[in-house]
Design goal:
The model has no long low-confidence stretch (mean pLDDT 90). The chain contains twelve helices and 20 strands. It has a domain at 54-87 and 133-193 and 269-354: 2-Layer Sandwich (D-Amino Acid Oxidase, Chain A, domain 2), CATH 3.30.9. It is globular, with a radius of gyration of 21 Å. The strands form four sheets. Strands 4, 5, 6, 7, 14, 15, 16, 17 and 18 form a nine-stranded mixed beta sheet that branches. With 415 residues, it is an alpha/beta fold. α1 (12-23) runs parallel beside α9, α1 packs parallel to α12 and α6 crosses α12. β1, α1 (12-23) and β2 form a beta-alpha-beta unit. The longest helix has 23 residues, at 103-125.
Amino acid sequence: MPENVMVIGGGPVGAFSAYFLKKIHMDVKWIAGKSMQNAAAWSSAGLLGVGLSFPLPEYEGLRGNVKWLLKRDSPVKLGVGFLFSNAGWFLNYSRSRDRIISKEGINAQTLLTVRTLDSMNELFQSKVIDADCSKNGLLQLFSDNHFMEEHLKQLKDAEGQIGKYDLLDSQACKDMEPSIERNNIMGIFYPEEYSLNPQKLMMSLRKLNEEEGVETIENDIVGLESSGNKVTGTVLDNEERIVSGSYLLAAGSKNQHLSRSLNLHVPVVPGWGHAEVLSSSGLKLKVPVELAEKGVYIIPTSDILKITSFFEFNGENFKAPQNRFQFIENAVADYFPQLKHLPPSQKTSGKRPCTPDSLPIVGKSGKFENLFFATGNCRQGIMQSAEMGRVAADVILNGKLPEEYSVLSPSRFGI
């Protein structure tokens, strides 16, 4: 059993991995990075729940990809430079739908989500962490009847694998959320979904780990070193070299770059999402809302409204142009014109770590005996983060991935 572990990655998966490793009495160093804002979760919606895992967005499939990308007014974007560099990855991604909705794929993702909720609830109830978490459901709004019918077909196909949901007519939608100012709408309400403030979650997790005795390193990592079949150290941006017994890569889309220094190809690329934060004083929503045709989420917490959208494949150093945020603002104003002239206090972008089969990677490397992975959760990073961290800690302790998560093994990519 290793006595010390280096966790690489400052997002929720890395934070929970460090926490659970410390709980089993490991000596843990956590490279959390210089800024929490660099983590994909900082710009996420902060939604938690099984109903958000399925049905899959239409763009996760070849026909849907083409359809969404050809729309002039669409939250799905594909950078030309990204496609040139990652054509094979993107083709595999577009063909991967059958694997994601396999019995094993659905079961693994559902377990990650349900067990993460259990772990988080335990921490929230004991007041160990605070992130404005509430179980107030999710209202999914539709203005196009055909779009909603296609969505309902997927819901029925996944019957028994997802949570409860209710169909709502236009009046029922407005009764549930009186701030809506658009007519001729339809809705699906998921009563068992949770929401939280992801920025507060990340700050709470960093504080929790420090209190537990995790050595937090607030520097960025630039590379890994190896000898034979062992990782031998990490190199930071200040040229400091840090050595540990085992290494856990939980650095999101940055894992692809870091793995190159080990001559590994970890197929995790950035799927960008963009977000705005507004003062909640401009609009008091009762429930989180998804504008289904626009892929826009509006999440109320105690003092802010967070608005997120986009699934954009682009490079690591991509900087979102203003029209991405204008798209979000226009979509929201179509339903909530009260927000049209309320300036955002933050505009941020995050890199969701996406794999070509849309399933996360967790487990031990087949190439290096002291290297482990916990990454690739894409748009479900927060909602699967605690269980990903617990499983990673368990694999490092026992050397074996639990059977129910075998479909998530790094071996499927030969890493």
